[in-house]
């Protein structure tokens, strides 16, 4: 397990110290080592979150509605929940959570499944959430997953996490680490339901083959092509599966149940407000906080599913009198050093950082993470007029530090657009620019989380357009004054009555040195419970089949975590090529850029690329060396890269492999040729993908079709 994650859900009440050497849990104002704290929880079966009890436990139960507590908080976590009452040990610390059908409730009643959660279960789920955060900030956002394996005797045998998109799942790692005896009859705790689709059956098959008796899930997978698939497959294999989110948020909502889904989310939000800053010793409240932590761990994914857009977070710093700069426009610095460090961490956890042209002109920002390694977010500038500085010394045009993207309108200052492109800046021009189109484009690029660090001139229109979901406000103990001093939200919103004011809900507060950080959701999201309800509602009727393209004439693929993601170069599948094992097609492709060049340094570069855990990191390293040291790239790379890619793809999609089965499923009886067209839906790559305007060469999709079609011809012969 790595030493520290970048951040953890606020609902878990846990933070890492600045050195990252240990994790601290706030408990009654005291800091405790989280690893020891969780260990003590495991021994005693007590709640790990110490908060002040709400004014009335009865009120807490009434607000939450369907959740009830009365089952043992200790004992074997693998024991079946179907035991009779006479078989269950009696204790004052008992608590059972059972779904009950009540008026206004969307918690489904299932006579065949009496789901039981003990205190120990909730402790291990929270631990899985913390593990899932281990690589936040080091890799691009993806569905974060953590796993804890507990033996039938209650001993923790493995703690693992998925490193990045397309890498080995956490549960497979846990089964590989633990001895077979430890897995037999044990319990597997996962913060989110694992993937189970065509070509991705390894997790379910491995769990069942290892003899795991029970799997406890913090939340169901919200993606339509995965939601409920692994749960159903595991139960069919005889494994008991208990899912916490299924008790509070029904994932199988019908259209008429949407109102009741909102009602459940409202009750959950009300109870979380009631418990804020308080110690809760009731099991149902503990379960709610645990669920909230699981949902917040993957709030990016939930927003992508629910809204078909990335999670957009507006960040700003202001004085205590609500000013973001002085009357002269000077703003360095409003917040303190520790607050700025938090902003750097937030940037690393996002796919991109968005600003407007005014910010570029007045501040000349870098918008970097200030870290030597790890994920590098794209810097996005939105400018309708293209009134931007063209000086090469402008910080944002230094693409050797981080990639930059300018979004504008077609035909606006074409000479300025060409000048930026010559500096290595990517320029995307819409026929008519709107913030909704910008956010949709960022979603098409595979972005899951977007940090808006713009001024009030862009922040106001962004909120008014409904593209901002969440606000992070740093308040500094300073006073500036002045009628002309800017505020965080400019005239782009400008509501006339207080009754029209937008409510910021599910707000949390944190003191960072002398500053205060307030974080909350705007009405576009309301709370993480509402977003989850919406996401599961859209996943209620997933696409039929197990990932096969039975009717579509086109199959698009891009990100490794999305449907058909195994077709992507970034999905890790071991390849044995040239007497060496490569972790993915992208590893091999990036390394071959430097093959056969007469420099000793190229051998080191190739070894470093091969050693990267994820394809994302291999690509980052390979592209960086290619840009900064072009003399190390082989001279014939322009012609050789097609042959290199073809060689790697033929190994990956060898007959009988999981990747081959998925590729073979893209045959369609509906299309004229009986075969689907494969398109790498990459707006940023017009060579291997289809590009921003859909006119790209799509070489990757073409090669995959050739491999598939050749095999189909051989089968016919």
- The 3D shape can be described as globular
Largest sheet entry: 9 strands, mixed
Rounded average pLDDT: 81
- Poorly predicted residue ranges: 1-6, 13-40, 43-75, 79-115, 251-257, 541-551
Count of β-strands: 21
Q: In percent terms, what proportion of residues is strand? A: 5-15%
Binned, the helix content reads 25-40%
| Strand arrangement across the biggest beta sheet | 13-12-11-10-14-9-15-17-16
Task: Give the N-terminus to C-terminus distance in angstroms.
Answer: 51 Å
By helix and strand content, what is the structural category?
Answer: alpha/beta
Report the radius of gyration as a whole number of Å. 26 Å
- What is the number of helices? 23
Q: Can you walk through the features of this model?
A:
The strands form five sheets. The chain has a nine-stranded mixed β-sheet, sandwiched between helices. The protein has a five-stranded mixed β-sheet with strand order 5-4-6-7-8, sandwiched between helices. With 717 residues, the protein is an alpha/beta fold. The chain is globular and about 75 Å long. The longest helix has 18 residues, at 258-275. Mean pLDDT is 81; it is low at 1-6, 13-40, 43-75, 79-115, 251-257 and 541-551. It contains 23 helices and 21 strands.
């Amino acid at each position: 397990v790595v030493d520290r994650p970048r951040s953890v859900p606020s609902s878990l009440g846990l933070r890492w110290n600045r050195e990252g050497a240990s994790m601290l849990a706030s408990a009654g104002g005291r800091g405790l080592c989280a690893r020891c704290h969780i260990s003590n929880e495991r021994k005693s079966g007590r709640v790990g979150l110490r908060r002040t009890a709400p004014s009335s436990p009865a009120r807490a139960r009434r607000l939450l509605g369907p959740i009830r507590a009365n089952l043992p908080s200790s004992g074997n976590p693998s024991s079946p929940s179907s035991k009779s009452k006479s078989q269950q040990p009696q204790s004052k610390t008992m608590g059972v959570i059972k779904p009950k059908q009540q008026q206004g409730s969307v918690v489904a009643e299932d006579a065949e499944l009496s789901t039981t959660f003990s205190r120990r279960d909730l402790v291990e789920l929270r631990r899985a959430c913390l593990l899932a955060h281990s690589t936040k900030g080091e890799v691009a956002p993806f569905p974060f997953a953590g796993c804890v394996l507990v033996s039938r005797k209650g001993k923790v045998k493995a703690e693992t996490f998925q490193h990045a998109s397309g890498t080995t799942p956490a549960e497979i790692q846990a089964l590989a680490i633990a001895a077979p005896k430890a897995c037999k009859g044990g319990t597997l705790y996962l913060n989110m339901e694992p993937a189970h689709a065509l070509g991705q059956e390894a997790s379910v098959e491995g769990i069942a083959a290892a003899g795991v008796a029970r799997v406890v899930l913090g939340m169901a997978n919200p993606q339509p092509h995965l939601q409920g698939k692994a749960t159903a497959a595991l139960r069919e294999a005889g494994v008991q599966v208990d899912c916490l989110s299924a008790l509070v948020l029904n994932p199988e909502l019908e259209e008429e149940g949407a109102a009741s889904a909102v009602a459940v989310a409202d009750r959950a939000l009300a109870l979380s407000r009631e418990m804020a800053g308080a110690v809760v010793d009731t099991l149902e409240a503990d379960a709610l906080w645990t669920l909230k932590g699981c949902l917040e761990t993957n709030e990016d994914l939930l927003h992508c599913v629910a809204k078909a857009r990335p999670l957009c977070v507006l960040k700003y710093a202001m004085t205590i009198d609500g000013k973001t700069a002085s009357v002269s426009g000077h703003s360095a610095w409003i917040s303190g050093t520790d607050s700025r460090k938090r902003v750097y961490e937030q940037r690393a956890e996002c796919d991109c950082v968005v600003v407007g042209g005014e910010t570029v002109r007045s501040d000349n920002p870098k918008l970097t993470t200030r870290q030597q390694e790890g994920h590098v977010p794209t810097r996005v500038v939105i400018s309708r007029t293209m009134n931007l500085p063209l000086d090469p010394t402008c910080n944002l045009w230094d693409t050797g530090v981080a990639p930059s993207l300018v979004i504008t309108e077609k035909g606006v200052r074409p000479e300025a657009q060409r000048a930026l492109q010559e500096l290595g800046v990517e320029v995307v021009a819409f026929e008519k620019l709107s913030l909704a189109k910008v956010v949709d484009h960022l979603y098409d690029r595979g972005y899951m989380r977007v940090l808006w660090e713009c001024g009030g001139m862009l922040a106001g229109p962004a909120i008014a357009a409904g593209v901002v979901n969440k606000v992070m406000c740093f308040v500094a103990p300073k006073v500036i004054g002045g009628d002309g001093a800017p505020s965080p939200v400019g005239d782009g919103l400008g509501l006339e009555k207080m009754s029209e004011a937008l409510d910021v809900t599910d707000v949390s507060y944190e003191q960072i040195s002398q500053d205060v950080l307030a974080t909350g959701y705007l009405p576009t999201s309301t709370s993480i419970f509402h977003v989850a309800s919406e996401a599961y509602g859209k996943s209620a009727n997933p696409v039929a089949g197990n990932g096969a393209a039975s009717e579509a004439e086109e199959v698009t693929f891009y990100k490794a975590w999305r449907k058909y993601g195994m077709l992507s170069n970034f999905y890790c599948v071991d390849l044995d090529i040239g007497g060496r094992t490569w972790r993915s097609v992208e590893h091999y492709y990036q390394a071959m850029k430097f093959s056969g060049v007469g420099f000793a340094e190229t051998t080191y570069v190739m070894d470093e690329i091969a050693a990267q855990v994820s394809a994302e990191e291999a690509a980052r390293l390979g592209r960086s060396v290619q840009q900064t040291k072009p003399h190390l790239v082989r001279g014939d790379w322009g012609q050789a890269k097609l042959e290199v890619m073809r060689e790697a793809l033929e190994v990956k999609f060898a007959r009988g492999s999981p990747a081959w089965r998925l590729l073979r499923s893209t045959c369609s009886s509906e299309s004229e040729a009986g075969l689907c067209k494969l398109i790498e839906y990459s707006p940023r790559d017009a060579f291997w993908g289809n590009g921003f305007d859909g006119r790209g060469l799509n070489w990757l999709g073409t090669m995959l079709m050739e491999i598939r079609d050749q095999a189909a011809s051989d089968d016919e012969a």
